[in-house]
Amino acid sequence: MYSDKLKRYLITALALGCGITFVYLALRTKTASYPSAPGIILEKPNRPIDAALDLLRVRKDKAALAILDKVLLSEPKNPQAIWGKAEVFRRAGQDRLAELMFREVLDIKPDYSPAWTSLAYLKYKEGNLRAAFNFTQQAFILSADNPDARALTYMLLGLIGSARPFNGGFVSRINRGMELKSYFLKAVRLGPELPDTHLALGIFYLAAPVLEGGNFKKGIRELEYALKIAPEFAAARALLTQAYKLRHTLYRNKRLMMGTFVEVISPDLKASGIVFNEFKRIESLLSRYDPKSEISRLNESGSLKVSPETFYIIQKSKEFWSATNGAFDITTGVLTDLWGFKDRRYCLPKEEEIKKALKLIGSDKIILQDIKSVVQFKLSGMKLDLGAIAKGYALDCAASKLKEAGIKSCLINAGGQVYCLGDKFSQPWRVAIKEARGKASNSYLELKDRCVATSGDYERCFFKNKKRYAHIFNPQTGYPAESGVISVSVIAADALSADALATAIFVLGKEKGEALARKFNNVHVSIIEDTRVQNN
To answer: Within 13 Å of residue 271, how many CA atoms lie on the same side as its CB?
Structure first.
């Protein structure tokens, strides 16, 4: 139930003897809070037990112990005083002595609910869950008329339930999480001024997975309230300090996928696994470099019944081909091979070879059969290359999976194609933009729930006779694009559109590219043409 890191924090707090503390309000008559032990004795000379319990509540143990010792000198069998002193010992880590004193209290007064509750907690701490549950049941029966005491029994039921091993399925885990959460919420509602109930609920919120009721912000809020009630509550302060650190912790992971490095940055440790799994799945469908992928098999056979996703991405590619007047075209695979970009054996093809290849270019030569999800080429030898749209689609799919998992903050960088999901600790994500020809940049974009894709002639290129030849082809000429543009960045709501438009605008050039961008809603473009930057 608990994440490993937060579970360690909890165990540390318990080992220090400053963890969950109990029922000093259970039988206490409601009185005002007191600033110090001497003041209490002077102001309330007839109620020293109440004064001691008040001090225990706000973690002033030494002052409380001084009062309890005085009470026990005159009333050695006073159950409240014995119980209070035992609580001080328990907080100091002297569990064995505390247990003997709690049992002494029950010998004197068997129906004294606080002692049953304290014993239940000691057994919970030892890991003896059966005994802890039995003691809690007894405390529950005896606390029927006392909301504070009843609140602490609900809290214990939640703690005991959280510690029990559980191997149920997904739905069962969610139901179990909701049940435990209900115990902690009941405890807070019945004992709103008990710091222990807020600490326990806070730990649950921090440690439980989101789908099982976890909520990091609510966890911090509960710990803060526990400290507001009891400023010297060491366990709450220690856990809150760790939670503050975790709140501003980013987990980073990088992996080589889809021909580039995919980097994932998120405050949620699970994010990278979700993203990498989705990229791997999309790569197995769309990669030209995987002979088993659907695109590779389609390129080999010229006709194939494909998955709905592959059909969809090819259909979207044809739409972009039409919207860009052919500047975006996934049928340039034959050019990628001819110029040596696929296997990095770069060469300058002969003019006759380029003219022959151009006969195979054009997304209008792709036949889509909607009903059967069949993709067919009109001409033999055609090859698809989805490199200008596949990463964008993978980013969108990964972001969708993150949202399904309840993850609201993540940045994914797939070789310059970036998806900013949510924000970073209530601030927009900052994305650095490369200058022309890949030089370092001091300029940044601040994005939230937006994507940015960059296409440039510096990403993959080779030189021949001092001339640069980049991997982005003009489908009309068969040569690397020469539009006067050396870099294009497109900001859009989805990564697929940003990816496709960045390539198309690079091919079209500044004027036509800006005109194209205006046809799409909420799309912003930055074009670097030689040394001049135009923003639209």
So the answer is: 27
